[in-house]
């Protein structure tokens, strides 16, 4: 008030507007920082920034009912249909196939997906260059949290999943997932850690 005393009303309004806009900008930075995903399993340094994270939040179109394993879940779509959904372009170690033993780092992958999406609203995205469903009838989808976090990419870059690019998939997405797997390998994250599979 002391600074603005004696100013004409137009100049005072401009000064107030500048201060308000500056405060809003600072608030947006703080709010954006708060969207970081907490480490679900107690590991420090979980990577939350990946090439696949969209620039803005997305509008959810399904609710996750339960997680089956690290790359499969059951979701209730907004149209009322319930589907088993297979995360597109990735593969996590096996945990539920009765014909196979539980594979190295499979439980960790399943727990991480559970911590990320179980009981939450998500956005399921189809890839027009991929198949709609796999041979088991599961929907093939990219999955995003409501803040725009790319779950498929997050699992790969943190070493919970391999890139699975031998099936039809958007070409740029294939490159992206391979790059994220390379990054995880070089950083020895998750299943790529030297001691990950030691008994």
Describe this structure in words.
Mean pLDDT is 78; it is low at 1-7, 23-45 and 49-55. The chain is an alpha+beta fold and 199 residues long. Strand 2 and strand 3 form a beta hairpin. The protein is 31% helix and 18% strand. The radius of gyration is 22 Å and the shape is globular. The protein has a 5-stranded mixed beta barrel.
What does this entry show, briefly?
The chain has helices at residues 9-33, 106-117, 151-157, 171-187; strands at residues 62-69, 72-77, 82-87, 90-91, 121-125, 139-145, 162-163.
What's the overall average pLDDT, rounded? 78
Strand order of the largest sheet: 1-2-3-6-5
| Number of DSSP-assigned strands | 7
Between the first and last Cα atoms, what is the distance in angstroms?
Answer: 69 Å
Low-confidence parts, pLDDT < 50 over ≥5 residues? 1-7, 23-45, 49-55
Set out the fold topology.
Layout: H1 9-33, E1 62-69, E2 72-77, E3 82-87, E4 90-91, H2 106-117, E5 121-125, E6 139-145, H3 151-157, E7 162-163, H4 171-187
Parallel strand pairs: 3-6
Antiparallel strand pairs: 1-2, 1-5, 2-3, 4-7, 5-6
Features:
alpha+beta, 5-stranded mixed β-barrel, two-stranded antiparallel sheet, disordered N terminus
């Amino acid at each position: 008030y002391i600074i603005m005393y004696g100013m004409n009303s137009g100049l005072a309004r401009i000064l107030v507007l500048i201060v308000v806009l500056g405060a809003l900008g600072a608030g947006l930075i703080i709010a954006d920082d708060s969207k970081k995903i907490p480490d679900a399993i107690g590991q420090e340094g979980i990577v939350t920034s990946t090439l696949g994270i969209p620039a803005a939040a997305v509008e959810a179109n399904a609710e996750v009912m339960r997680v089956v394993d690290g790359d499969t879940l059951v979701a209730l779509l907004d149209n009322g249909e319930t589907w088993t959904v297979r995360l597109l372009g990735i593969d996590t170690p096996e945990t539920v196939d009765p014909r196979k033993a539980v594979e190295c780092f499979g439980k960790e992958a399943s727990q991480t997906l559970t911590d990320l999406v179980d009981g939450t609203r998500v956005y399921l995205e189809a890839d027009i260059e991929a198949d709609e469903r796999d041979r088991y009838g599961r929907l093939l989808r990219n999955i995003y949290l409501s803040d725009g976090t790319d779950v498929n990419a997050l699992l790969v870059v943190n070493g919970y999943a391999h890139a699975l690019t031998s099936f039809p998939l958007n070409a740029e997405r294939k490159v992206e997932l391979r790059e994220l797997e390379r990054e995880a390998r070089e950083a020895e994250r998750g299943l790529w850690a030297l001691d990950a599979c030691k008994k």
